[in-house]
């Protein structure tokens, strides 16, 4: 059929002709065309049809309007108006979406059109009357009709006009923050893409040619492409074929295959046309603005269309004249500051509004940027089709809200893991989470509820203390229309602008800037994506690779690297494919990196990479290079240990760290290498004052692997870790001799090394103007010649004005860098952070100050203390001065007290400073320090007493007083530790085990049971002192008996037999004065042993260092107070866990004998049931409550042991009993039992929301805090019951029931599965237990039942990722005496 025919010819059509016309030209659904055949409609009746006639056939409004439109074209003999193919391809669902989002019609009108099957091809045929016939109001009718013609124009014009009226752009040079805008019109449903282009090409083929195309497509196969299965192509039309090809081959592949197949069927002209078409940005790159203008020029031929059209066309024509020639280049310049690399920015902040699923595929460039945070106004961003979800498929981001950015800067940075991981901030709701607080707000509600939080977030980002170094870029991505100033994105932009008003000298008064120079709005997202990805450093880089077994390699995924925040991972292809060899960028980068390093900066991987590229100019290999490399390989090959510590001792500034990294660089292709970045964890490759902490790490790694993985350490030969620990030492060679395995390097070059440095200097002269000014390099080249350094410093400082402020700051720096090599004065004090790059220069400066300017180190130190900038503390005088300067700091008197009692043994002075620290703040550690001073004093006195032949009775009086004061201090320290939430400092240890200045350098530990241990140690010192008294001599059985009976309170001191002499009489008087204290000691020691025995037995975790010490003391206790084997055996049985030599089988028999069997549980349950019946006669309310609770609990235990017992009550009966009890006791019952039962019986079902279970969780936590002894409060308890899938009491599953499935498994293996959580991966456990949905918010875990959130504790804290990210999770639930516990936490995303 021709597109237009004379009406006379149409009247001659048969019924089949009408059907064919409807199917091929009008392209209605076959059911519609069949209705015309059923009603015997031929051409003569068709030409007389009106819309009502077609509707009378039962055809819906959409197809009816389309048929009439085509029929009118036939009648008038005119060509139909041409609309873009992608509009006509819209489904009725896409039309519905467009009407709601872009025309803003009421929902009921959009639904009405969808119900009438109005798809895109029908919509373009609609006139005003057609909409009125569908009961669309006049105003909305006009709006919809106009929008059909402005569909490509409306969003762009509104957005761009509004954007230009925004408050402008600011480049803040002081803060190094920059803005740029990308304005993207909304991607409308079915925008022209490769699928549409291929379909249009196939539409132009004849039927036979299309069959040939299908036949060759089935056979198409190359090394790159596999054919589409024949079954998939069967019966597919052009549209389905095009979609199938783009899905199978992806976009570029689909075009290539289409062109190849077209040429195979001799359709070369169409193949060439397709290739040319794909070269145009209107199709391939989806340049929407070009498409807008193109579409508008076509619409201008339409007769009697709406007046809006002319205005829009004029606007586009005027904008087209102003269109920039190359927005791609502009985008590139904005991102790179005019260069070719993104390295100019250290942090990027993205502000983005709503995106569509079609846009997300073109935002992959975000994965490559150094994103500090993203401010996202799309509540659907973390759903399956959202931008955040797409980003998190390949990168890690913590999910936050603006309110989480409030508080102290350091705390926010630490809690949210800023700098380490991207923060994705949802600024207006989050629909992947349930609850009203996560719903999107309209503008006015957002302004009232959320705007202030976003403003504070912006204020935080713009705080100069947040980004101390480097440049930051703030990028606005407007992916959907902003057609009103009443939009949160506008307020956010305003907040950024208002923040900068604080720096009046940096911006103009009115912020009257044109945003256009900093905006990109004429590029499509695909063009932006391609432009950014083409920039270095990732334009040509391949995946980061790590070595694997058998000379293979594995890809290091970005997301995995994001999660390893503590490691700087060295890949085998590190630095490769980033810069083109010998290019200007390559040479500039090399020059910059070399200059920074040879001036004294830290070595970078780039240094080794550039030297590898130029084999004629290799990196200098130190003499110990081969030794160190050989030692590492030897340990990997021969050591049987999983983790080995190798120490590299070196003089400061002699290149120890550089040597270590050089060896790592050359081993990177055979060993996986990484540097520990966080110095607070102690470095793998960095300067460390002590080797103790790396040894702790070395012990910790195997324990962690055993606890949290299935790796068999003994069998996995490849599972080895080498810790290469660089240790500064003033005498590396001596340190090397004391530690094995180790290596050392000194500040002395061999002749061969000196020759290499001379050669390198000549090489540097070829590429650098004055390499002689690379002082760090020149110091090493001079073989660390002190005369060279002294002359350098003398000449530099010769004309220096020491009266100036700069001179004072320089003297501070010299002092700081002499002791702390990398210390610097921060940019908050100066314009840039500065330091002296080499410690030997800093030390020489101090000598020059004193030699030439009479400025002593002590004078500089005192000056620092009097300066508001900093302080330093090294000697007693400095401590004293510092304490005066910082009166409220407890660290200084605390540190001085430690120094005095450990190093100088000046106990009275130490006690004075320890008391001062305690008065500033009383905490476990200030009291512990007091106790340790007394203990050291007592030990010192005791040791001296052992050496003296004659004893002074007054010494006994002094020692007992010291002991009493020590025990008081240790008890107070333990009391505070049990009541405090978090420790603030590290506790004291033995003097020989603790460095003077160690307290602030290493992570702090929990106080645990140090106070109790201190009490025991003091008591046994007192026992030892007493045992040396003449009448308590332990070698005499009778005197030993008196010693024991006195301490057991059996006799007073006056009843102890003793020789009548003056010395003994004085001893007796002294003991009488302290008799109560001394006679309470034995009972107190016994009570402490019992308490610690319970602690180690029932609490989760292991404390081997305490257990060994306490066990040793317990053996001493038994030998002191137990004379007979029977007494010793009795004491051992009372404290089974404190004696390491008790027979294991004996313990098992002991436990088995005392376990209640099923019969006894039945008797107990029966008794409680009887008591329940007699409760009406009982007046004691507490007794009633206790018996009721025990009755319920015994029923649950009996059910678990013998579910068919006649004594087990129904769950309804138990629930009623418990409800009554809970009403009686309320929520403040001092014991956790009723609330524990409430968790077991009242835990909600899947659909329950209205329950008070959360209040019972709070109640059980409060009661355990009161009920359990302070020592037990902060320790983990174990769950004995778990939530199962059944109903009633069957949903309670006990741990023994679960263990029944693993009878054949070795006991220790099973225990290991429970410890690391792998038990929950077993199918029998999965089938038995109920998985609960929940969330993690602010680091807390919740079980979610609709709107109900129940707080639970994670069994393994490390399963809760850092960064306070809000995540959806699921887990298994256990019930412990402290409340519900979450096991096997799994993240949904």
From TrEMBL:
Coiled-coil annotation reads 1064-1091
Q: Which SMART domains match?
A: PYRIN (SM01289), SAM (SM00454)
- Composition skew (Acidic residues), residue ranges: 977-992
Q: Which Pfam families does the entry link to?
A: PYRIN (PF02758), SAM_1 (PF00536)
Which CDD domains does the entry link to? Pyrin_ASC-like
Q: What is this protein called?
A: SAM domain-containing protein
Q: Which domain of life is it from?
A: Eukaryota
Q: Which residues form the Pyrin domain?
A: 188-280
Q: Which species does this protein come from?
A: Labrus bergylta (ballan wrasse)
Note the SUPFAM superfamilies from the entry. DEATH domain, SAM/Pointed domain
Does this entry carry the keyword Coiled coil? yes
Gene3D superfamilies from the entry?
Death Domain, Fas, Transcription Factor, Ets-1
| Gene Ontology CC terms | cytoplasm
Keyword Membrane (UniProt): no
Where is the stretch described as Disordered?
936-955, 973-1001
Q: Which UniProt keywords apply?
A: Coiled coil
Residues of the SAM domain: 13-59
């Amino acid at each position: 059929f021709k597109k237009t025919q004379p009406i006379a010819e149409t009247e001659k059509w048969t019924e089949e002709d009408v059907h064919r016309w409807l199917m091929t030209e009008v392209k209605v659904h076959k059911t519609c065309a069949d209705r015309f055949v059923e009603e015997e409609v031929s051409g003569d009746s068709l030409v007389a049809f009106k819309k009502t006639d077609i509707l009378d056939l039962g055809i819906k409004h959409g197809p009816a309007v389309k048929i009439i439109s085509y029929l009118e074209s036939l009648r008038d003999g005119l060509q139909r108006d041409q609309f873009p193919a992608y509009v006509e391809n819209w489904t009725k669902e896409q039309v519905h979406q467009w009407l709601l989002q872009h025309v803003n019609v009421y929902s009921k009108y959009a639904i009405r059109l969808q119900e009438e099957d109005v798809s895109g091809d029908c919509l373009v045929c609609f006139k005003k009357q057609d909409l009125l016939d569908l009961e669309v109001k006049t105003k909305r009718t006009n709006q919809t009709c106009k929008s059909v013609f402005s569909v490509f124009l409306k969003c762009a014009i509104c957005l761009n006009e509004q954007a230009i009226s925004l408050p402008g752009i600011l480049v803040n040079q002081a803060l190094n923050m920059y803005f740029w805008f990308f304005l993207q019109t909304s991607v409308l449903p079915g925008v022209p893409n490769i699928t549409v282009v291929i379909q249009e090409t196939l539409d132009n083929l004849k039927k036979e040619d299309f069959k040939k195309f299908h036949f060759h497509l089935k056979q198409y196969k190359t090394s790159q492409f596999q054919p589409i299965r024949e079954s998939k192509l069967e019966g597919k039309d052009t549209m389905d074929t095009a979609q199938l090809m783009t899905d199978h081959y992806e976009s570029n592949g689909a075009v290539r295959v289409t062109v190849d197949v077209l040429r195979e069927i001799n359709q070369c002209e169409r193949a060439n046309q397709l290739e040319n078409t794909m070269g145009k940005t209107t199709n391939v790159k989806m340049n929407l603005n070009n498409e807008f203008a193109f579409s508008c020029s076509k619409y201008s031929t339409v007769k009697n269309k709406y007046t809006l059209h002319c205005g829009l066309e004029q606007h586009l024509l005027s904008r087209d004249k102003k269109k920039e020639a190359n927005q791609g280049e502009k985008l590139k310049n904005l991102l790179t500051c005019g260069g070719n690399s993104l390295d100019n920015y250290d942090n990027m902040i993205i502000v983005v509004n709503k995106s569509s699923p079609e846009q997300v595929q073109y935002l992959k460039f975000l994965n490559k940027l150094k994103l500090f945070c993203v401010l996202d106004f799309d509540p659907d961003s973390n759903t399956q089709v959202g931008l955040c979800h797409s980003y998190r498929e390949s990168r890690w981001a913590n999910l936050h809200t603006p309110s989480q950015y409030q508080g102290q800067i350091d705390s926010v940075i630490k809690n949210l893991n800023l700098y380490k991981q991207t923060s994705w901030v949802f600024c207006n709701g989050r629909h992947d989470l349930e609850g009203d607080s996560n719903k999107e707000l309209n503008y006015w509600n957002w302004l009232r509820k959320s705007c202030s939080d976003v403003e504070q977030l912006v204020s935080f980002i713009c705080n100069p203390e947040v980004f101390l170094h480097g440049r930051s870029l703030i990028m606005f991505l407007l992916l959907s229309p902003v057609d009103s100033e009443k939009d949160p994105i506008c307020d956010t932009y305003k907040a950024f602008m208002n923040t900068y008003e604080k720096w009046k000298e940096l911006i103009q008064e009115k912020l009257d800037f044109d945003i256009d120079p900093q905006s990109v709005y004429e590029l499509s997202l695909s063009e932006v994506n391609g432009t950014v990805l083409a920039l270095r450093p990732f334009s040509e880089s391949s995946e980061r690779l790590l070595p694997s077994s058998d000379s293979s390699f594995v890809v290091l995924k970005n997301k995995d690297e994001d999660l390893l925040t503590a490691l700087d991972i060295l890949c085998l292809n590190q630095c490769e494919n980033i810069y083109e060899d010998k290019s200007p960028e390559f040479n500039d980068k090399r020059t910059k990196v070399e200059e920074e390093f040879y001036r004294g900066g830290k070595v970078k991987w780039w240094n080794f990479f550039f030297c590898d590229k130029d084999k004629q100019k290799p990196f200098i290999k130190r003499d110990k290079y081969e030794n160190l490399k050989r030692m590492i390989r030897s340990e990997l090959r021969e050591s049987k240990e999983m983790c080995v510590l190798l120490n590299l001792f070196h003089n400061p500034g002699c290149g120890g760290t550089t040597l270590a990294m050089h060896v790592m660089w050359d081993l990177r292709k055979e060993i996986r290498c990484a540097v520990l970045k966080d110095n607070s964890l102690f470095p793998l490759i960095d300067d460390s004052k002590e080797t103790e902490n790396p040894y702790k790490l070395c012990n910790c790694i195997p324990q962690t692997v055993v606890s949290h993985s299935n790796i068999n350490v003994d069998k996995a030969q490849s599972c080895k870790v080498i810790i290469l620990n660089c240790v500064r030492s003033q005498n590396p060679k001596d340190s090397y001799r004391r530690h094995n395995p180790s290596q050392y390097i000194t500040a002395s070059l061999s002749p061969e090394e000196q020759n290499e440095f001379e050669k390198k200097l000549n090489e540097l002269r070829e590429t650098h103007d004055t390499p002689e000014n690379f002082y760090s390099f020149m110091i090493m080249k001079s073989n660390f010649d002190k005369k060279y350094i002294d002359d350098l410093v003398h000449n530099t400082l010769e004309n220096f004005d020491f009266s100036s402020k700069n001179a004072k700051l320089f003297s501070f720096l010299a002092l700081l860098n002499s002791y702390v090599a990398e210390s610097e004065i921060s940019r908050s004090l100066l314009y840039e952070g500065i330091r002296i790059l080499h410690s030997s220069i800093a030390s020489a400066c101090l000598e020059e100050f004193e030699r030439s300017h009479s400025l002593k180190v002590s004078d500089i130190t005192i000056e620092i203390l009097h300066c508001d900038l900093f302080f330093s503390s090294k000697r007693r005088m400095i401590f004293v001065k510092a304490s005066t300067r910082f009166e409220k700091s407890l660290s200084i008197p605390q540190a001085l007290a430690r120094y005095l009692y450990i190093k100088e043994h000046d106990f009275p002075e130490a006690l004075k400073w320890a008391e001062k620290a305690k008065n500033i703040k009383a905490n476990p550690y200030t009291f512990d320090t007091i106790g340790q001073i007394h203990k050291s004093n007592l030990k010192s006195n005791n040791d001296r007493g052992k050496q003296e032949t004659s004893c002074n009775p007054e010494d006994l009086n002094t020692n007992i007083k010291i002991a009493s004061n020590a025990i008081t201090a240790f008890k107070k320290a333990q009391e505070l530790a049990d009541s405090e939430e978090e420790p603030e400092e590290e506790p004291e240890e033995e003097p020989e085990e603790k460095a003077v200045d160690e307290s602030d350098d290493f992570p702090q530990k929990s106080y645990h049971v140090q106070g109790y241990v201190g009490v025991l140690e003091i008591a046994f010192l007192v026992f030892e002192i007493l045992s040396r008294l003449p009448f308590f001599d332990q070698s005499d059985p009778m005197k030993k008996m008196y010693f024991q009976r006195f301490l057991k309170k059996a006799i007073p001191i006056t009843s102890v037999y003793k020789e009548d002499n003056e010395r003994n009489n004085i001893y007796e008087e002294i003991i009488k004065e302290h008799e109560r204290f001394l006679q309470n000691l034995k009972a107190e020691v016994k009570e402490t042993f019992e308490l610690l025995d319970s602690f180690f037995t029932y609490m989760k975790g292991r404390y081997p260092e305490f257990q060994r010490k306490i066990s040793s003391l317990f053996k001493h206790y038994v030998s002191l107070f137990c004379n007979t084997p029977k007494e010793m055996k009795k004491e051992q049985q009372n404290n089974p866990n404190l004696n390491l030599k008790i027979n294991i089988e004996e313990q098992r028999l002991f436990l088995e004998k005392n376990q209640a069997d099923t019969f006894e549980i039945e008797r107990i349950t029966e008794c409680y049931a009887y008591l329940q019946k007699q409760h009406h006669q009982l007046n004691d309310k507490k007794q009633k409550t206790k018996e009721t609770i025990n009755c319920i609990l015994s029923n649950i235990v009996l059910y678990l042991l013998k579910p068919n017992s006649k004594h087990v009550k129904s769950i309804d009966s138990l629930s009623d009993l418990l409800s009554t009890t809970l009403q009686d006791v309320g929520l403040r019952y001092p014991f956790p039992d009723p609330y524990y039962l409430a968790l077991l019986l009242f835990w909600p079902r899947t659909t329950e929301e209205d329950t008070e279970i959360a209040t019972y969780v709070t109640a059980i936590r409060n009661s355990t805090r009161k009920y359990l002894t302070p020592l037990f409060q902060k320790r983990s308890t174990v769950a004995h019951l778990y939530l199962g899938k059944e109903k009633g009491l069957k949903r309670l599953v006990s741990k023994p029931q679960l263990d029944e499935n693993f009878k054949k498994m070795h006991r220790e293996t099973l225990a290991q599965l429970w410890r690391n959580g792998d038990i929950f991966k077993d199918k029998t456990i999965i089938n038995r237990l109920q998985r609960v949905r929940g969330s993690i918010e602010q680091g807390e875990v919740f079980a979610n039942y609709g709107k109900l959130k129940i707080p639970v504790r994670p069994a393994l804290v490390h399963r809760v990722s850092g960064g306070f990210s809000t995540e959806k999770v699921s887990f298994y639930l256990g019930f412990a005496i402290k409340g519900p516990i979450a096991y096997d936490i799994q993240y949904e995303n």
